[in-house]
Design brief:
Blueprint lengths: L12 H8 L7 E7 L9 E7 L13 E6 L2 H19 L6 E3 L1 H7 L14 H4 L15 E8 L5 E5 L24 E4 L2 H23 L5 E4 L5 H9 L6 E6 L8 E8 L4 E8 L3 H19 L5 H11 L23 H6 L18 E3 L11 H14 L5 E4 L3 H4 L4 E6 L18 H8 L19
Parallel strand pairs: 8-12
Antiparallel strand pairs: 1-2, 2-3, 4-5, 5-6, 5-13, 7-14, 8-9, 9-10, 10-11, 13-14
Length: about 450
Amino acid sequence: MTSSTHHPRNIPLSRILPQLVSRKTGILKGLNTLLNSPGEPKTHVAISELTDSRRYLDCYGETSGTGVGLTEDRALMSALGEAVEGYCAYDIRNPLIMGSYRKISTIDPHAVSPAELPLYSPSQYGNEKFKYRPFTEDTVIRWTKGKSAITGTQRHLPAALVYVSYSVCEKETPLCHTIFGGIASSTSHTSALLSGLYEAVERDAMMIWWLGQLSCAKVELTSDTWVGKLFEQKFAGSGLTFELWHITMDIPIPVFFGLVTDARNNTVAGGFGTNLNPEVAALKALFECVQNRLGQLPMKSDWGRSLYNEKTQKNIFDENSDTIAQQNFSGMVDLNNNLHTYLQPETHHYLDAVRSGNNTIDLNEIRNRSNGSAEQDTETCLELLHKQGFDVIVTDLTHEDVADLGFMVLRVSIPGLVPNSVTAWPHLGNQRLYDVPPKLGFKRKAEAEMADYPLPYA
């Protein structure tokens, strides 16, 4: 859920760590930095270990969070922010209302309608093994409140779109798998809103690009940009190969896909970055590459897979499996399997199509709409989305104990955008998958032509 830009700022670590980190009573069991091995990028990486949520929840929440930064404090705050997001997003404390859209719209005429939420396709619903059901005006679900960041209007929306690992109750219809993108923490409402908004836009571009296997322009990082200079200082010469592609779709907020190739270990891992400032977005994508590679490598060993299975109480990784290259991905329902897939070179050909283009773009050619102010950048993004016909709905997930420490956690929902999903259940009912690529000069593809294999990303 979180990236290197999703972290609280201006809170002294020395003040909050004693209240957050404790093996017995803390939200976190631990928060530590990793030592860089020789040949690694010269960044700081931190890991947070979350408390076991099974002691107070029906589901198992996040086990850890990761942060990457140019300084140790920024990495620690990023990992801490990710942990706080998970703590608030799994534990439902806001009141929920049970009912159909037809019923809830009599109470709230601005409630999000089924027409605003294209989820899955008729062929997916027609599969007898598919667990989710269509969202209609008469579908009985639970609802929670949000507020439009554009109009200020209160809007009810399905709780399944807001909370992580949401579990339906008796007589409730299952709508969809967890919506991963759009949860952010910060010390201000505006910063959290902007981070969550960026993530929702990013996931939309990500899924349109990946499912459609679009060959976008490769980005050239040159030394006349600050991120190009930073790349030379921190990433180049590490023994790893980093690449960037510009995958912005029809919403003019820059989105990048980064890929790190580790020739020593025969692995690849991806990362994404989004920001009105293209250089900030590019750096975020590079940070995520570092983060996902470090999360991926332990899965090469039996002990790493066993440890993950033990921590999550799930048999996600088969310790006796020698290859994943021939796996049927229709059963892949955990994001961590995505990175596991790309531990073996036999699967790297899944990236051939998106890497096949010859077009390049200089980072300086991509328009920078940021003025450096979170408030003004938020207004710019809201205006860009409103022009495209989208609303931005904000739900405050902040728990009291988190608020007391100066944090805020928000869920940002943008009905109509394509959320990222587990490989087994992409949102193939969303028409943007089919309509946006032709607007950008790509061939229109049918549902059967959408990629059915995993992203190198979790």
